[in-house]
């Protein structure tokens, strides 16, 4: 137990390293499964990618601009509205993506019957992925247009007037034809717009000019009425003066409040020590006063004279009486001076309060005036801006109506031309099979690793050091590593896993040298649920004790016995149930295992009511009899949460060891089983973590137990 506690302290000292090892240990324990699953997913993805057809992409480049040649007159150039032109250019990009353009291109190239839209994405080389017959499953008009739009890409080049038109297809010739045809169709569309866009705009401008004139007149009238109603002459100057006054008053108010707060501390100190002149003398206002300083110096001089005369004359000598009277006079003057200073400080504080109040009232009045003037100013500026805006609009439209008349109603079109036509693509652009396979491998490895880590972190078992440290319901006696028999013919008596054997010996040492109590002689081993390894722990713990003691292993699990099978014994041989039923003698039931060097009492024939057998007084008497002949008795019992046999047996043993599967047993099952044992005051020794994968010391132990040739074997203990 001390070794386990010391090890836990060392683990807590390096908490960060433990956390990292806890995260990586599950991955290392399942590394082969992880690699196999990752390779399986990668192979499946690689096979799927190999089935996909290659796609080709061709790109044509157009220039779409609002900048016309110098010999072409543009209404946008006349109006100088560059922002509107940029929005219109962006609109042209959306037109290229529109359904109308898609239908035009499909019709021009007669693509509604093309194999491009009737074949799937898989290669022709695989019969089970044959193409869809277009006669048996014809696509609708809308479906073909939608497919066409998904394969068409319109990409403007940043900071230029150029736009790339790209089309992806399973046929390289088709991708070239479509990219060029989209550009040609757009040029034809611009010609249609140019021929249909010549209509007069003068009347619209005249109507707008008339409406703006009425708005301008109304806004000017509203501004004048507001100025006369509020008596506004120079609103900016008045607001500036009030603002300056407000700033000065704010500064004065802050200074007055600060001065008042400073005096308040001194005032409260004076009030608390009103009658204690010795304390009041410590105030800066008193100690730094010039009159007080002079009086204190005079006092010190007179006190020295009193001290000198007291050595030479008696108390009734005239000189001594005179000098003492002078000292009393100075002290009275000091007290009077302190009182005067205190009174002056109090008057200053009261005066400061009045000044702060007056300044605050003046500040509030100035704030109200400033806010009122701000509201007037905001309303005035709002009306003024409306007048200025209407004037500017009216002037602009007046200029434009004259220009529109001179242009004869001409409306400009965009300047569009081919920069580069699409060429026949020589190589496929997709799918990028190698990249998909590499990404699939990386992503599958990451996802599977994350799944394993999350499962280990959130599973409610004692599968990590952190969870063990937080488990307070019972002591942790030992942690047993996971092991497997080398082959199906190997029995537990031939087990050569040194890691597991040394862990069992550590458990034995913990039981023998527990400083809190005497080493238990009769030990019961139980678990929460079946298949946690309690039979294995009981067998190997008995084997470990048998190396230096006379040990008896009793199989008290009469419902599902496994000891006889694990040791290759006859499962029908008489055992504990036969002894309790008095059908056989002790020497007929106990068998001596020569390999393990211990005596074994198997369960015997399974009775109809095992609990009734184990509840007999005869069972307790047998344990007492066996205690006289054996140094240690190990009893394997059924799981606590399944049946109550272990609870009955716990009343006649010295110690109960609770076996827990490291990665399967949930904490709620552990707590439930421990709670049942504690209710009957069972002597719970602690918990043994069995089949641990994440809390293992394989690398450490292998340094010492990988070579069996250098181990000195002790002579076999003779049976008494």
Keywords:
720 residues, alpha/beta, Alpha-Beta Plaits, 8-stranded mixed beta sheet, 4-stranded antiparallel beta sheet, 26 helices, disordered N terminus, disordered C terminus
List the helices and strands and how they pair.
Blueprint: H1 2-13, H2 15-29, H3 31-50, E1 56-65, H4 75-79, H5 82-97, H6 99-109, H7 141-151, E2 152-156, E3 162-169, H8 172-196, H9 202-230, H10 235-272, H11 277-280, H12 284-287, H13 290-312, H14 318-407, E4 415-420, H15 433-458, H16 465-470, E5 476-481, H17 498-512, E6 522-527, H18 534-545, E7 551-555, H19 563-566, H20 576-581, H21 586-589, E8 590-593, E9 598-601, H22 610-614, H23 617-629, E10 632-636, H24 645-649, E11 655-661, H25 667-679, E12 684-692, H26 698-705
Parallel strand pairs: 5-12, 6-10, 6-11, 7-9, 7-10, 11-12
Antiparallel strand pairs: 1-3, 1-4, 2-3, 8-9
Helix pairs in contact: 2-15, 3-15, 6-7, 6-8, 9-14, 10-14, 13-14, 17-18
3D architecture notes:
By secondary structure, the protein is an alpha/beta fold. The chain folds into 4 domains: 2-51 and 431-458, no CATH class; 56-198 and 412-420, Alpha-Beta Plaits (2-Layer Sandwich); 235-407; 465-485 and 505-706, P-loop containing nucleotide triphosphate hydrolases (Rossmann fold), CATH 3.40.50. The protein contains 26 helices and 12 strands. An 8-stranded mixed sheet has the order 5-12-11-6-10-7-9-8, with helices on both faces. The chain has a 4-stranded antiparallel sheet with strand order 2-3-1-4. The protein is flat. The relative contact order is 0.10. Residues 1-18, 69-84, 131-136, 408-412 and 697-720 have low confidence and may be disordered.
């Amino acid at each position: 137990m001390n070794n386990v506690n010391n090890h836990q302290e060392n683990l807590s000292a390096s908490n960060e390293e433990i956390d990292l090892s806890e995260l990586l240990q599950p991955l290392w324990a399942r590394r082969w499964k992880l690699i196999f699953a990752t390779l399986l997913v990668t192979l499946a993805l690689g096979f799927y990618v190999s089935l996909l057809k290659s796609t080709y992409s061709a790109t044509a480049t157009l220039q779409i601009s609002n900048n016309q040649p110098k010999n072409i007159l543009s209404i946008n150039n006349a109006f100088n509205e560059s922002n509107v032109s940029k929005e219109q250019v962006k609109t042209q990009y959306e037109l290229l993506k529109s359904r109308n353009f898609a239908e035009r291109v499909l019709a021009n190239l007669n693509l509604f019957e093309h194999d491009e839209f009737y074949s799937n994405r898989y290669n022709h080389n695989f019969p089970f992925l044959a193409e869809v017959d277009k006669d048996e499953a014809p696509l609708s008009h809308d479906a073909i247009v939608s497919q066409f739009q998904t394969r068409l890409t319109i990409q403007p080049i940043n900071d230029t007037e150029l736009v790339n038109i790209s089309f992806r297809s399973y046929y390289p010739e088709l991708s070239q034809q479509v990219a060029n045809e989209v550009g040609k169709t757009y040029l034809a569309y611009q010609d249609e717009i140019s021929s249909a866009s010549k209509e007069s705009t003068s009347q619209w401008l005249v109507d707008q000019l008339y409406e703006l004139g009425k708005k301008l007149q109304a806004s000017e009238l509203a501004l004048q009425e507001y100025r006369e109603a509020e008596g506004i002459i120079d609103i900016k100057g008045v607001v500036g003066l009030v603002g300056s006054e407000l700033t000065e008053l704010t500064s004065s108010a802050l200074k007055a409040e600060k001065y008042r707060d400073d005096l308040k501390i001194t005032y409260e100190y004076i009030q608390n020590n009103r009658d204690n002149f010795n304390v009041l003398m410590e105030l800066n206002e008193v100690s730094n006063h010039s009159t007080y300083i002079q009086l204190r110096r005079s006092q010190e001089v007179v006190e020295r004279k009193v001290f000198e005369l007291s050595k030479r004359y008696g108390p009734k000598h005239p000189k001594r009486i005179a000098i003492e009277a002078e000292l009393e006079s100075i002290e009275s003057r000091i007290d009077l001076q302190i009182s005067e200073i205190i009174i002056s400080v109090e008057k200053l504080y009261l005066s400061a309060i009045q000044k702060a109040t007056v300044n605050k009232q003046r500040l509030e009045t100035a704030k109200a005036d400033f806010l009122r003037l701000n509201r007037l100013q905001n309303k005035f500026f709002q009306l003024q801006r409306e007048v200025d805006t209407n004037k500017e609009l009216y002037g602009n439209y007046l200029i434009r109506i004259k220009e529109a008349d001179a242009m004869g109603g001409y409306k400009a079109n965009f300047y569009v031309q081919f920069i580069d036509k699409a060429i026949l693509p020589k190589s496929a652009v997709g799918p990028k099979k190698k990249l998909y396979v590499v990404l699939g491998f990386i992503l599958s490895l990451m996802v599977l690793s994350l799944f394993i880590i999350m499962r280990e972190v959130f599973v409610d078992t004692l599968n990590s050091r952190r969870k063990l440290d937080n488990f307070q319901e019972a002591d942790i006696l030992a942690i047993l590593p996971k092991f497997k028999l080398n082959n199906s013919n190997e029995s537990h008596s031939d087990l050569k896993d040194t890691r597991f054997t040394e862990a069992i010996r550590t458990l034995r040492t913990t039981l023998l040298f527990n400083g809190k109590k005497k080493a238990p002689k009769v030990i019961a081993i139980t678990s929460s649920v079946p298949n946690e390894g309690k039979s294995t722990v009981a067998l190997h713990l008995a084997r470990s004790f048998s190396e230096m003691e006379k040990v008896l292993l009793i199989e008290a699990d009469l419902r599902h016995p496994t000891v006889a099978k694990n040791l290759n014994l006859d499962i029908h041989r008489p055992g504990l149930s036969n002894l309790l039923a008095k059908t056989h003698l002790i020497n007929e039931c106990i068998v001596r295992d020569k390999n393990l060097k211990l005596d074994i009492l198997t369960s015997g024939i399974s009775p109809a009511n095992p609990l009734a057998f184990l509840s007999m007084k005869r069972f307790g008497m047998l344990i007492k009899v066996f205690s006289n002949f054996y140094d240690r008795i190990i009893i394997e019992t059924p799981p606590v949460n399944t049946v109550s046999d272990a609870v009955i047996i716990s009343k006649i043993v010295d110690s109960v060891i609770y076996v827990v599967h490291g990665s399967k047993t949930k904490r709620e099952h552990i707590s439930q089983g421990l709670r049942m044992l504690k209710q009957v005051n069972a002597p719970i020794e602690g918990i043994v973590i069995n089949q641990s994968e994440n809390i293992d010391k394989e690398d450490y132990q292998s340094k010492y137990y990988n070579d069996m040739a250098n181990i000195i074997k002790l002579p076999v203990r003779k049976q008494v």
